[in-house]
Amino acid sequence: MKNYSKYVPFLRRAAMAAGVAVLLSACAGPNPRDPYEGFNRAMFQFNDTVDQVALKPAATAYKAVLPTFVQTGVNNFFGNLSDVWSAVNNLLQGKGEAGMSDVTRVTLNSTFGLLGLLDIASEAGLQKHNEDFGQTLGRWGVPSGPYLMLPLLGPSTVRDTSALPLDISGDVWRYKEPLYIRNIGTATRVVDQRSNLLDASTLLEDAALDRYEFIRDGFLQRRESKIFDGESNPRKRQPKQAELDAAPDGMETSAPVSSATAPKELNSEPPAATNASL
């Protein structure tokens, strides 16, 4: 009799994938940008609970206890590390000037800025960029796909989620040894990023009627803006001159996309952990 035990792990993974597919199909909704709204709202509630119970209190204590210059140093240090991956992605996107600017930032801040604790590059006029591989894929023409709310990581899209493994690999801090120092630094980084959003999240909690929709719409518009550096998507169809000539006076051939529901960018880099309460 044949031994089928070696197929058990494969069957388990297949069953798990099928279960996730069924769950997402059951949660499908009418919004074409958010077809898995039921699933996403459940993840939003989960992230919000984690944030309210653990992350937000830790960020509040962090901001209240540590001196401002220490918080600034922590933020600058990890921001300097993120400039390395930003440089790579800017170069991959064909933005050579921005990429070399990021390389110069890392060089200056890592040397004269005491390993990045001081952001002297910004004071010297070198603009900070926040680029990831999801933006690079978008720049290459890969569509964003549906909106996804990831457990603990917060808002994303199918495209950005597929880019996460490379973004994680591109994080310089991921290779820090020993392990306990890396873990302490990672936790500190998350709490520091969350502390930067305390005031904005409180304002959002008071103002937004449906925080889920507010965050979703703002995130999607902000991502497209970041991919094209604040410019309109050049791949969107523009009306031909003949269509403009044929249109009645005072009317456009296509309605512009409204940005009234988009919040202003709260932070140049989203938290590495849950931001469901924002």
Automatic annotation (TrEMBL):
Keywords: Lipoprotein, Signal. Residues 1-28 form the signal peptide. Belongs to the MlaA family. Residues 226-278 are annotated as: Disordered. One of its GO terms (cellular component) is membrane. The keyword RNA-binding does not apply. InterPro entries: MlaA. This is Phospholipid-binding lipoprotein MlaA. GO terms for biological process: intermembrane phospholipid transfer. It comes from the Bacteria. The keyword Lipoprotein applies. PROSITE patterns: PROKAR_LIPOPROTEIN. The lineage of its organism: Bacteria, Pseudomonadati, Pseudomonadota, Betaproteobacteria, Burkholderiales. Pfam families: MlaA.
